[in-house]
Amino acid sequence: MHFRLHALPLAPFRPLFELDDAGLAALGARRMTVDAPHSAPCRVSLADAAPGERLILLNHRHLDAPSSPYRSEGPVFVREAAVEASPAAGEIPDMVARRLLSVRLYDADWMMLDADVVDGAGLADRLADWLATPSAAAAHIHTARRGCFLAAATRA
User: Fold this and answer.
1) Nearest C-alpha neighbor of 8 from the set 90, 68, 95
2) How distant is the alpha carbon of residue 88 from its chain centre?
3) Strand arrangement, sheet containing 138-143
4) Contact, 130 vs 136, CB < 8 A?
5) Beta strands of the chain (E only): which ranges?
6) Is 133 left (phi over 0), alpha (psi -120 to 50) or beta?
7) Mean pLDDT in consecutive groups of 10 residues from the start of the chain, 156 residues
8) pTM, full prediction
């Protein structure tokens, strides 16, 4: 079973880059400069921001199905220089592969079917197995330690 990871689209975040710090703060967002490698994973480019790079930290609702009790939102980083990622089928970007992950599997009604903590290096095999399940529709990938949403995965 092939799968594909999906980054967040850039378009909804683009207007934020035009706001000043006060405008961002009014939305509960912050402009930041990265100070350490691998500390700020961008959910649009699916790449870690480099030290010195600017990004926006904001709350984002990544599961917004009104009928699901699993609606969820949380903090995400978006690099000001982000280019929307489109990983090939079966590809796990380094940003994801290098982390300990919490992965949640959902059906078409956004009811959780399963969840597990997975080392990023083993994510491809786990996604392939899970998405081979006929009732599975999507998996959401989060950082295990902080619980932040990273990307979604569906059948390719």
Assistant:
1) 95
2) 16
3) 3-6, 149-155, 138-143, 100-106, 112-119
4) yes
5) 3-6, 30-33, 54-63, 72-79, 100-106, 112-119, 138-143, 149-155
6) beta
7) 94 97 98 97 98 98 96 97 97 98 98 98 97 97 96 97
8) 0.95
Tokens read off for 128: 């392939």
How many whole angstroms from its chain centre is CA 51?
20
3-state percent breakdown (helix, strand, coil) of the chain, nearest 5 = 15, 35, 45
Distance separating alpha carbons of residues 27 and 90, to the nearest angstrom: 36
- For the purposes of burial, counting CB atoms within 10 Å of the CB of 36, is it exposed (0-12), middle (13-18) or buried (19 or more)? exposed
CA 71, distance to chain mean position in Å, is 15
The CA-to-CA distance between both ends of the chain, in Å, stands at 8
Whether 15 contacts 31, CB under 8 Å: no
